[in-house]
Amino acid sequence: MVAIAFYSITGQTERFIKKTQLSAHQIDDANPKYDMGKSYILIVPSYQDFMMDSVVDFLTYKDNKKNIIGIIGCGNRNFNDLFAQTAKKIAATLKVPILYLLEFSGTLTSRKIVHDLSAGESTKQVQKPKELRGNISFLSDFRD
User: Fold this and answer.
1) C-beta separation of 24 from 17 below 8 A
2) Do 31 and 61 contact (CB within 8 A), yes or no?
């Protein structure tokens, strides 16, 4: 079983998690330093870098950066290049795959994919991020 961690400010990502009915750790702004202690999938929305301090604190706490096996990005496709920007930047920085990109609070298909991934199903059908434009500064000081 693969654990899940997620971050949500507006509640859209949290709504997706609730729809999956899976247990997941919510990264908390008040106390982001939480040790996942095992392999996990990170689910993040599309926010600007300065709004992701709690995710940075979470990722750099203990072995969280080492234990992440993939990322799922959430957002609105109307954001164009900014759609799932946080997931794309973390994936490029930490060299982990984007497992899925979903819009709004997901669909039945996206919930099934998360269920399969959390159960340890193969991640061979990994969605590669589109070409990243501009400088990737997010988490740049945590590159290996």
Assistant:
1) yes
2) no
Cα separation, 130 vs 29, whole angstroms:
29
Write the CA distances from 134 to 51, 98, 127, 128, integer angstroms. 19, 19, 20, 17
d(CA 19, CA 107): 9
Q: What is the pLDDT of residue 135?
A: 43
pTM of the model: 0.78
Distance CA 36, CA 68 (A): 9
Reduced to 3 states (helix: H, G, I; strand: E, B; else coil), residue 58 is helix
Q: Kindly state the average pLDDT of the residues 83-101.
A: 85
Nearest to 99 by CA among 119, 69, 78: 69
- Res 137 pLDDT > 60: no
